[in-house]
């Protein structure tokens, strides 16, 4: 029997507090970045505007329940794919090449809209729907049925992934793969298939990196790879030798974060000039002005967010909601790990923003749409009488996924 819940009790106040903290961090970092940047635009005002728009997106999204999202899953997916296709068909006046990629619609006076940011969320919904549908129609799990599910999810992911790679946008493509991987791990697919596929992928990736570093002439001769395409790998491994070209941003980022030491230089006391620091390299601003302590606090805030999303995934009674949470967790975790990692030379540089902190309307709206799904899950879950928590806990079985 269900307990009657007040609407205020259903609202996710913890998530709201975390988002408010991230909003304040974003405002402080962008304000400092724009004061020493090469632009005269007020990015802080625009970021506040997009946060307000994002709050509106959350308000609308949270009133739809899981059944609604399952019914609309393929409509969302198809709409996202159509937007990606439209990028190639649109004239340069509407979809110009920016930094070598055709990834944005430019709509005045709104600005630029990046469809792939929304496609990531639509993909999470579609993959979650496919997993639930497959498991509902599978009475006995076998290697054959698991392989069928893997292929289904692979095909669903391949279409938007291919369109994003053609833009080209390697960073977003990697995020799409992280979403796919996260959902594969909890879908109930046999670990024999997962280890075989991802083990082979890891071996191939390791071989390619080895060839890029030690035998690039082989790739140039037989795979027709151009020398300049190795630039990001070389700049990552030895940024000082490429600081006049592809290694410039990394060298400046390391200088900024390193000069912040433990306590930082203080708000507005930046000395290292770093272009585009209000977007992908916003963590460099935080590291220089607030030091190791400030950067660590930001990382801890993201840990709090991921922990809260994990609790939501475990508390919900609907498998579909669990998969939604898993997809969002995979997306946010990869974004944070990759963005911060590239600013400190742990990972190669890709065009991936720091969620909720970097400036960017499309990125922020996409992330707020993802948070809207989490708010919806919390708002619509049912609490059962005589239960100590929001619902009966479900155990994760590596061979069967989440079950009662």
Number of helices: 14
Identify the strand order in the major beta sheet: 1-2
Radius of gyration: 22 Å
Which percent band covers the strand fraction?
under 5%
Whole-number total of structural domains: 1
Q: What would you call the quaternary organization?
A: single chain
| Global structural class | mainly alpha
Instruction: Note the gap between the termini.
Output: 17 Å
SS elements, strand count:
4
- Pick out the low-confidence regions: 384-396
Average pLDDT, rounded to a whole number, is: 86
Tertiary shape = globular
Q: How helical, in percent, are the residues? A: 55-70%
User: Major β-sheet, in short?
Assistant: 2 strands, antiparallel
What is the string of helix and strand elements? HHHHEEHHHHHHHHHHEE
Q: What does the model show?
A:
Its main location: membrane. One of its GO terms (cellular component) is plasma membrane. It is a multi-pass membrane protein. There is one protein chain. By secondary structure, the protein is mainly alpha-helical. It has one domain (7-386). 65% of the residues lie in helices and 3% in strands. The protein contains 14 helices and four strands. The chain has helices at residues 7-10, 13-35, 43-61, 66-89, 115-136, 143-165, 170-186, 191-214, 216-222, 231-237, 248-259, 282-315, 319-343, 361-380, and strands spanning 105-107, 111-113, 395-397, 401-403. It has a two-stranded antiparallel ribbon with strand order 1-2. A hairpin with a 3-residue loop joins β1 (105-107) and β2. α4 (66-89) packs across α6, α5 packs parallel to α14 and α11 (248-259) crosses α12 (282-315). It is globular.
């Amino acid at each position: 029997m269900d307990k009657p819940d007040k609407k205020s009790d259903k609202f996710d106040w913890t998530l709201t507090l975390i988002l408010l903290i991230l909003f304040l961090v974003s405002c402080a970092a962008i304000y400092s970045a724009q004061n020493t940047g090469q632009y005269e635009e007020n990015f802080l005002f625009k970021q506040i505007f997009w946060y307000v728009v994002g709050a509106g997106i959350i308000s609308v999204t949270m009133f739809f329940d899981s059944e609604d999202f399952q019914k609309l899953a393929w409509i969302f997916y198809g709409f996202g794919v159509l937007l990606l296709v439209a990028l190639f068909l649109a004239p340069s006046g509407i979809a110009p090449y920016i930094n070598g990629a055709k990834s944005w619609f430019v709509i005045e006076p709104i600005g630029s809209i990046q469809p792939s940011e929304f496609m990531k969320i639509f993909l999470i919904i579609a993959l979650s729907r496919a997993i639930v549908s497959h498991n509902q129609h599978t009475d006995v799990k076998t290697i054959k049925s698991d392989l069928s599910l893997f292929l289904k999810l692979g095909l669903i992911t391949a279409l938007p992934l291919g369109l994003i790679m053609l833009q080209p946008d390697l960073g977003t493509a990697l995020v799409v793969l992280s979403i796919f991987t996260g959902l594969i791990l909890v879908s109930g697919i046999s670990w024999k298939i997962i280890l075989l596929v991802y083990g082979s992928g890891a071996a191939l990736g390791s071989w390619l990196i080895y060839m890029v570093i030690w035998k690039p002439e082989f790739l140039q001769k037989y795979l027709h790879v151009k020398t300049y395409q190795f630039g990001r790998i070389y700049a990552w491994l030895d940024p000082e030798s490429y600081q006049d070209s592809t290694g410039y941003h990394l060298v400046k980022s390391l200088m900024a974060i390193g000069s912040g030491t433990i306590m930082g230089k203080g708000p507005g006391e930046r000395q290292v000039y770093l272009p585009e620091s209000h977007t992908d390299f916003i963590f460099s601003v935080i590291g220089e002005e607030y030091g190791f302590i400030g950067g660590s606090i930001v990382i801890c805030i993201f840990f709090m967010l991921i922990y809260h999303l994990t609790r939501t995934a475990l508390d919900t009674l609907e498998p579909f909601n669990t998969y939604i949470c898993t997809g969002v967790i995979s997306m946010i975790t990869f974004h944070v790990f990759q963005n911060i990692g590239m600013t400190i030379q742990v990972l190669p540089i890709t065009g991936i923003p720091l969620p909720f902190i970097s400036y960017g309307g499309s990125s922020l709206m996409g992330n707020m749409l993802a948070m809207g799904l989490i708010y919806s899950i919390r708002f619509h879950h049912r609490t059962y009488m005589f239960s100590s928590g929001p619902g009966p806990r479900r155990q994760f079985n590596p061979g069967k996924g989440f079950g009662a």
